[in-house]
Amino acid sequence: MSEKKITDMQSMRCRVCSWVYDPELGEPNQDVMPGTAWESVPETFLCPECFLGKSEFDPA
């Protein structure tokens, strides 16, 4: 199985709960402003639904 390549403004989906990070929206509750590419999201980011870390996300 090949991995999807992450593009600059790629949406990312949590593998556990399926919450989607949309870079156009960001996640203001965690100080991630709209327009923030996934690569620029801090490593301390947690899924707002299940509270797991950035490593649990795959390209949507």
Question: Brief overview, please?
Answer:
With 60 residues, the protein is an all-beta fold.
Describe the secondary structure blueprint for this structure:
Layout: E1 12-14, E2 20-21, E3 57-59
Antiparallel strand pairs: 1-2, 1-3
What does this entry look like structurally?
The chain is mostly beta strands and 60 residues long. 0% of the residues lie in helices and 13% in strands. It has strands at 12-14, 20-21, 57-59. Strands 2-1-3 form a 3-stranded antiparallel beta sheet, with no helix packed on it. Strand 1 and strand 2 (20-21) form a beta hairpin. The radius of gyration is 11 Å and the shape is globular. The model has no long low-confidence stretch (mean pLDDT 91).
Descriptors:
single chain; 3-stranded antiparallel sheet; globular; mainly beta; 60 residues
